[in-house]
Amino acid sequence: MLVHFVTDEPTKIPAIRAMLEPQYRVESRLLGKGNTKISSDAVLMVDADLRKAAPVEQLKLVLQDLLGVSEKLFVVQSHLHHMVAQAFALGATAVVSRPKEAIPKLVQIEAAQRAAQADSAATSSAITNSAAAFASVFSAVQAGKLFMLSDAENATSEIINGIEQNGLGVWLDDVRRYHQGTFQHCLLVTGVAVGFALDIKFPDADVKRLGLAATLHDIGKARIPLAILDKPGRLDPGEEEIMKRHPVIGYELLKALPEISPEILDGVRHHHEYLDGSGYPDALTAPEISDLVRLLTISDIFAALIEQRPYRPPMSRHDAYKILCAMDGKLEPSLVKAFRNVALRA
Ligand SMILES: [Fe+2]
Ligand SMILES: [Fe+2]
User: Fold this and answer.
1) pLDDT per 10-residue tile (average), the chain, 346 residues
2) 279 within 8 A of 254, measured Cβ to Cβ
């Protein structure tokens, strides 16, 4: 497999060659210099300082030439959330915090390329496209800028297409392989919600509505301090309180958009409400909780359980479904029952 290494720092090139050769063939390119075409099954590996405007602008130019390359591995040495967001906004499919962590990723990529060349091509590009669209929404909110609702709608459409073509199981496996943190969570929740809506034969417009609510449901987290959002362990009670503000923050952010629909606002504000009144932020009870919110809440909890977190391994889909079934009084039992198909089917 060919690894095409792009950097803004010439001294990094011999170190990468020493680490990867001879197992991988390495071609290198210094940002701002030269112009090399690479084959689409090569892996692009980028190690550049994304805090500086010049390398980011040069990278954008390089990446324009490499749209056909499906694997884009970024080394983000300061593993801060906004740097990771920047990497995904540029089109990264995976992010590592040290060059040597690239090796297991390359092994994974090579195995995945061999195992599923034809089948996963469509899904991978749907993931890359939807993650890039989602990342640009998230980065805009972090930077205090207005974002384009159309970016969130595009991300949702890519996810719906990916699941219609290849099924939910492929989507969940691929997202868990390639993405992390809040991006992984939102891509998974949207995938699960869309899979659920398709399974219970929702009309197209409702699939889109639920998908968009899922894409945007945690957008308020873009305004939660990074020290809390990126904390590698469990939150303490004070941090938990701050984290619990994200539904209202998301609601306030979206309320300002003229084209936003009331159902999406309802989903974003109320996805942590429970039928028995024990949820937040408004302690709603069953009659006040819409069907869209009930579906979204089930999808959100399930996705959170099966995703990879730094401090615990992902739960199996079977175990995650058992937890949903045990949440007596909080979730709509008929929907939890209907969800069985989605939760357990491969
Ligand atoms: Fe949430
Ligand atoms: Fe969530």
Assistant:
1) 89 91 86 70 87 86 78 81 82 86 86 66 70 80 83 89 85 72 84 95 95 95 86 89 97 92 97 98 98 97 86 86 96 96 84
2) no
Q: Give the Å distance between the CA of 217 and the centre of ligand 2.
A: 6
List, in sequence order, every beta strand (DSSP E) within the chain. 2-7, 25-30, 43-47, 71-75, 94-96
The ligand minimizing its distance to the Cα of 272 is: 1
> CB–CB of 220/212 below 8 Å?
no
For residues 293 and 263, give the distance between their C-alpha atoms in angstroms, rounded to a whole number. Answer: 9
DSSP-assigned beta bridge partners for residue 312: 309
Which ligand has the nearest atom to the CA of 182? 2
User: How far apart, in Å, do the first and last CA atoms of the chain sit?
Assistant: 30
Would you state the structure tokens that stand for residue 213, as one six-digit string? 């609510």
Decide: 152 and 215 in contact? Cβ < 8 Å.
yes
91: left (phi over 0), alpha (psi -120 to 50) or beta: left
**Which secondary structure element, helix H or strand E, spans residue 173, and what is its range?**
helix 168-178
Q: What is the DSSP string of 57-101?
A: HHHHHHHHHTTT--EEEEE-SS--HHHHHHHHHTT-SEEESSGGG
For the CA of 270, the nearest ligand: 1
Angle at the Cα of 338 (from 336 to 341), degrees rounded to 5?
A: 110
Q: State the pTM of this model.
A: 0.67
Give 246 Cα–ligand 1 centroid separation in angstroms: 7
CB 172 within 8 A of CB 165: no
